[in-house]
Amino acid sequence: MSLFSGLSAFPLTPLLDDAVDERAFAGIIERLADAGVDSITALGSTGSYAYLTVEERAQVAALAVEHAGDVPVFVGVGALRTSHVLANVERAEQAGARGLLLAPMTYQPLTHDDVFELFRSVAERTELPVIVYDNPGTTRFAFTVELYARIAELPGVSAIKIPGAPRDPVDARRHVDTIRAAVPERVTVGISGDAFAAAGLNAGCDSWYSVIGGTLPEPAVAITRAALGGRPHEATAESQRLAPLWALFAEFGGSVRVVAAIAEHLGLAREGCLPLPLRGLAREQRARVVETVTALGLV
Amino acid sequence: MSLFSGLSAFPLTPLLDDAVDERAFAGIIERLADAGVDSITALGSTGSYAYLTVEERAQVAALAVEHAGDVPVFVGVGALRTSHVLANVERAEQAGARGLLLAPMTYQPLTHDDVFELFRSVAERTELPVIVYDNPGTTRFAFTVELYARIAELPGVSAIKIPGAPRDPVDARRHVDTIRAAVPERVTVGISGDAFAAAGLNAGCDSWYSVIGGTLPEPAVAITRAALGGRPHEATAESQRLAPLWALFAEFGGSVRVVAAIAEHLGLAREGCLPLPLRGLAREQRARVVETVTALGLV
User: Fold this and answer.
1) What pTM value is reported for the model?
2) Pfam families per the record (chains A, B) (predicted)?
3) Nearest neighbour of B108 by CB, restricted to A18, A82, A138
4) d(Cα A165, Cα A171) in Å, to the nearest integer?
């Protein structure tokens, strides 16, 4: 199995008094390793990479590797400025990361050439494999299959994380096949957007880059094992069972505030664990999250 | 005249070898002061604030104040994380800024409450007046008039920078009047989006937060003086004369790459003055920019 196959769990980076809560983070990482995830991606969007300094990110990368045991750790290195990305790359290498996740963060809109050259700068500077992180909901950058193909030609680019997939299984398969046909065989294709994960895996994705897997790993492991083990209906059924949770992700403006509320409820993080200005969910919203995950037997 | 009336020029922050080009920046600031702009806003979107470190931003703020003579300097303090915003506020105060420009930068989408609390945190921490910076093209945050009103109640909030205005003069006037009616009288309303500036000023805006004014101040001064001096047709005519330039802003994905090309052409900045991954315009695009500003008599 490739390094970039299976379930990659995206942990939160909980804060306490505006600093990384090292104990809480270490606990989350150990919990993921114990649950048997295939890899851990520290400092994804769920891990608040965009809000942390280069130093904090080095600290988080080192903690993740230290507490992950044998589970490979990938580290998000995206930043608005190329030189800051390269500084993150160096620190991730020093921490012992096994791969790098790179999203084209934007403030001024980026062109395709800007993004290609960003990936080229990183690929030239590191021996570590790079995951192309396509997450337009946060980066506001829209990849095309042509741009995937251009970037995937760079040596070292090993995986693409796509944002969701069509609901219809035939369309989803066609979408994944189109991307596969455009990139070298060595490049894996992974799904993100938890609500789409079963559909994406069943449509041929190699991996699931999972938000929920970073906080509640068991159901994510179950869906991944079912889908990749040739039991697509089991994966679909489990994903459909979790539909009330996916609905809260949509209703509450994204997954990160919801998983932060779950982590805080479970005592994995202290209340207010997201970096301000991101405020946690309101009291009534939290109550609905707790009610939902409790009813689903997830906590 | 209020501190937040008239033309506020937004200079580039030119880089050289990935560091602030101090000499070039000082030259740009002196050029703006000489041209008689009413204020200078350092570290706006045009000034690449989002890409610079707290230390670089302190350096830029100090240089701007040092070289602006009697012209008041406002400083952009926005950042993704509230604690970083507050660090920028402190450094801007130390540099001698006369006002602060605050945009709600986003990675994870922000709620209205998040943004209100961000502005409250800043207003509580400083005696300096704050300009609300509404720039959805870069921040991807959409203000509403209700949110303007809520933020404008905070003591210290002194101005709102709105992103454009309706083309039709009656609609534009209604839009500006709606905002004015919703906020305290002490709060000025300024227009941005250079193509809309004459329309916005003619519709009753107090000020123009101007990209082009940061690199080619004379035409921006002329439009502002005409509009605020009761000569709306003169302002409109000059803006319409510059339509080929506004068209390039739209065609080339925003104003910053175009003004960087103009500054580089004029020798105000060295080639490649924007922070990577933002690449400058391609050769043919640069040629069209130079041709256009030359034909308009702007250089």
Assistant:
1) 0.97
2) DHDPS
3) A138
4) 8
- For residue B271, is pLDDT > 90? yes
- Distance between CA atoms of residues B32 and B9, nearest Å: 7
- Rounded Cα distance between A142 and A152, Å, is 16
CA end-to-end distance (rounded Å), chain B? 30
> At A268, is the secondary structure helix, strand, or coil?
coil
Which chain B residue shows the shortest CA-CA distance from A103? B107
Q: Could you tell me if B115 lies within 8 Å of chain A, comparing CB atoms?
A: yes
ipTM of the complex: 0.97
Counting Cα atoms < 13 Å in the Cβ hemisphere of B173 gives: 5
- Closest CB from A52, A138, A279 relative to B114: A279
A80 closest CB neighbour out of B50, B110, B113: B50
And the tokens for B232?
């709306």
* Residue B213 at interface with chain A, using a CB cutoff of 8 Å: no
Residues forming a β-bridge with A41: A74
Closest CA to B8 of B140, B69, B90, B99: B99
**CA distance, residue B228 to nearest chain A CA (Å):** 31
CA distance B250 to chain A (A): 12
pLDDT at A32: 98
Residue with tokens 């189109």: A178
Contact A82 B45 (CB under 8 A): no
CB B60 within 8 A of CB B66: no
Contact B5, B72 (CB under 8 A): no
pLDDT digits (tens, 9 = 90+) for A230-282: 999 999 999 999 999 999 999 998 899 999 999 999 999 999 999 999 999 99
Q: What pLDDT score does B139 carry?
A: 96
Q: Which residues in chain B have Cβ-Cβ distances shorter than 8 Å to A113?
A: 279
B256: contact with A, CB 8 A cutoff: yes
Q: Hey, is the C-beta of B285 within 8 angstroms of any chain A C-beta?
A: no
Judge whether B136 is closer than 8 Å to chain A, CB to CB: no
**How many residues make up chain B in this entry?**
299
Residues B101 and B112: their CA atoms lie apart, in Å, by 18
Q: Is B140 on the interface with A (CB under 8 A)?
A: yes
Give me the amino acid identity at B266.
L
Strand, helix or coil for residue B108? coil
Chain A: closest CA distance from residue B202 (Å): 29
Over residues A194-198, the mean pLDDT reads 96
Residue B111 contacts by C-beta under 8 Å, 6 or more apart in sequence? A253, A279
- Residue A102 Cα distances to A8, A115, A137, A197, B105, angstroms: 15, 10, 15, 20, 20
Q: CA angle, B18 as apex, B14 and B21 as ends, to 5°?
A: 35
- Assess B19–A contact: CB distance below 8 Å, yes or no: no
End-to-end CA distance of chain A: 30
Q: How far is A127 from chain B (nearest CA, A)?
A: 21
